[in-house]
Amino acid sequence: MLDVQEVLGIEDAAWAELGSTIGRVSAERVEVEGVVPGWSTHDVVWHTAYWVGYGADAIDSIRQGQPEPADDDATETDNDAIAEIGRTMTWQEVLDRLDQHRAAARAALGAFDGVVPQRAIEFFADYTTGHYVEHEPQIRAFAEAQ
Asked: Are 41 and 25 in contact (CB under 8 A)?
């Protein structure tokens, strides 16, 4: 079982990789579909930002002793609705939200007084690092195809 500092270190490394890869997509191509079918870099990064924020909220709920939120990724319909929300934002707004939600997730995990429940660590790993690791190779492949 990993402790909080180890989990944060793993997330930090995955974050650096994701950020580097996002930076390789030219400004002219962030709105071009093809990272995954029907989605652009903008869409995938917003999807990631959204779920990082969900994870931050879930961790806060656990810390406050509230009922644990569902730990299941959205259906395709839900993810498509999430993508539509992101399409109302500029690329910079999406990047800013990703940074904000990441900071919120890290702060939420660090806000526990004493022992951090394993469930909170799992939410953090799934909704931050898990999404970075899932989507970084897709964005990288798209960037390399430029």
From this structure: yes
